[in-house]
Fold each of these.
Amino acid sequence: MAIFSRSSRLPVRQPGASRPELTDPYVPSRPDWNCKAPGCGQPWPCETEKAELLWTFREARLVLRMYLAAHMQDAIDDAVRHPFDVDIDFWPRFLGWVPSVAPHPAGPEAGSGPAGATGFPC
């Protein structure tokens, strides 16, 4: 806030600023963005990390998307600096798998809408 109040501008984003928690073994290795967890090595976020992220951000999907978008930007920066023989499809890998609406924790209530309605927005 101090920088913004003095200059009326936000600070410039620094590559690598979105560092994952060190306690999580399912973190990305850089610059290849594969999972560092022992025995995993899948493209990050791997299936285990996706499930963990969905649980952690179950009530804050927008925040999850922002978190993953920051990682995607870091991965794009790494791909530009360290080109690989493998092309990465960034959108499906980082953001495309996140459901757009968080389901209600208790599920749809019976009789809460027209017959056959799921209770979830499209």
Note: The helical segments are 2-7, 47-56, 61-81, 90-96.
Amino acid sequence: MSGDNSDLKALIRTIPDFPTQGIQFRDITTLLLDAEGFALTIERMTAMVDGPIDAVAAIEARGFVFGAAIAREIGAGIVLVRKRGKLPGGTVSVDYALEYGSDSLEMHDDAIPQGARVLVVDDLIATGGTVLAAVKLLRGAGAEVGQSLFVIDLPDLGGSAKLREAGVSSDSLFEFEGD
């Protein structure tokens, strides 16, 4: 976690019992509506980028918002990591387990040159299933993935710890306890 960032944390709306009973949904749309808050979010996330980066891999869909802005700031390209069937042309994919069932992520098969240094970006890290699948997909295509960035971390759900175990640093602007 980087600094205090309580000013940005205060811009996040919590919606209880969404999408299911007992979940505290952390809604970033209120942060995005605040022009200064959004600008500060990108500035502070960009400051956390470690080393030269060739491409930012942004995870569908909210990760696109932050990933594109960060890629622009650091002069890197952007790779869209999407759900199955959303990309035209040739793709590579990875299947991964969810709490109930499974899902798939894809990217274009020509998106990453061998040895490219890739930063993974999303809005929130919870259990880590989706971002770990993205890392597997990227590494399978020959990318070097050593860092991931998030606006929000839910550390009680263990995703950041799983990323670190996989050799990927996990940095966020702030945390929320619980789910």
Note: The chain is about 30% helix and 35% strand.
